Known about the structure:
Layout: H1 24-29, H2 43-47, H3 50-63, H4 77-94, E1 102-108, E2 114-119, H5 122-140, H6 156-168, E3 173-178, H7 182-185, H8 188-196, H9 202-212, E4 216-218, E5 221-223, H10 236-253, E6 257-261, E7 264-269, H11 272-289, E8 300-302, E9 312-317, E10 320-325, H12 327-340, H13 349-367, H14 373-395, H15 398-407, H16 412-419, H17 425-429, H18 432-435, H19 440-445, H20 451-459
Parallel strand pairs: 1-4
Antiparallel strand pairs: 1-2, 3-7, 3-8, 4-5, 6-7, 9-10
Amino acid sequence: MLGEQKTGKSGWACEGMLETESSRRARSIASLETAEGNGADALLERVLERNNLNQAYKRVKQNGGAAGIDGMTVAEMLPYLAEHREELLDSLRGGWYKPKPVRRVEIPKPDGGVRQLGVPTVIDRMVQQALHQVLQPIFEETFSDSSYGFRPGRDAHQAIKRAKEYYEQGYTHVVDIDLAKYFDTVNHDFLMDRVREQVKDERVIKLIRKFLKSGVMIDGLFSHTTEGTPQGGHLSPLLSNIYLTSFDRMLESRGHKFVRYADDCNIYVKSKRAAERVMESCTKYLEVKLKLKVNREKSQTGSPLKRKFLGFSLYKTGEKTGIRPHEKSLARFKEKIRELTSRKQAKPIKQILWRLETYTTGWLGYYAAADMKMRIIALNEWTRRRIRQILWKQWKTIRTKHDNLVRLGVADGNAWAWANSRLGYWRVAGSWILTTSLTNKYLASIGYSDISRRYEVLRLNH
């Protein structure tokens, strides 16, 4: 891109100045100032406009994340921009800006296998973000109302609620389509043809294609990318929606009820036979027209009451249809709590409880859209028991157990008897001696954040 992306002077400490529009330094560094343009060929000027780049910088800084192959961290962006702002801008204007290969990392999937993600350099992330901010509003108007992923004002909760509405309308069979390695198999030529339908500035077209062709670095070895979108970058979600909009329009033209979230698409029909027919026609369209690969093992037809969609499934009780976490989602949640509250770890209890709260906060924030009051109550009590188990083990010696029980209000005789108990940790954790000494109130006082109570508060917003 600009040779070595090394940081410049280290004396630029007033980072906030870049983030303030009135700051002269923001004007000179983040703006990489350009004249505003008009007409079809002026889109790049909008991308490089001062406020747009300033906002892109702030977003990348806010998101954080690991360094790319050049090793530059988010914190080092500002000094780099201070020294190389004109060079960066000239390269973007002149068309010789060259994105660096993304650093490939593997993330374990909850159901086994790995997901391959790319980590672009922070400067590439900033340029991608600047492109995204200009392109998103342009393409937003072209997207389907049934598309919910990576779009402003839309989320997975809305998607599953739409699925519930279709079920209530009598669409009781679902065609669940799984695309194999979707983000890695997007056809570049087809994608760029779709982009050109809205983008007429060839400089922007060429810049997007450069990101698509930037390649990946795996264990120090460079590999060209001839298909796929740059996962981990800010452009990838937008490009993925642009690509699949053709599929959305095909479904709409045939009158289908469907919900798509990125590459996860469910189509709702009224009979098993219709589901099988739609599965066959959609598979053909995706593989022949869009040159994608449908995972036939994971793509199935069935009941929304059993199939998992975005971690949820539907349930029916009498006349009521509701949303619940899928059993696999609950199982993974419980497994993670089991890992975080393992009695084998040698961590202070406050650290354990902090990590537990951090994880459950994110999980509850997502799954609060589901009906699971009784399940959460049971999980809450099970988690408390695991915490009591940890404390009982950490007390270790008979004397420590006795003294702590007495301090918590247990009579001396009972304290000695239980301190000498040969029962296992789990049995003792569920016994009356710990539930009446390590009370719920006590656990809260040392940092346990009640899962059930937080769920009830979050439910008020759904």
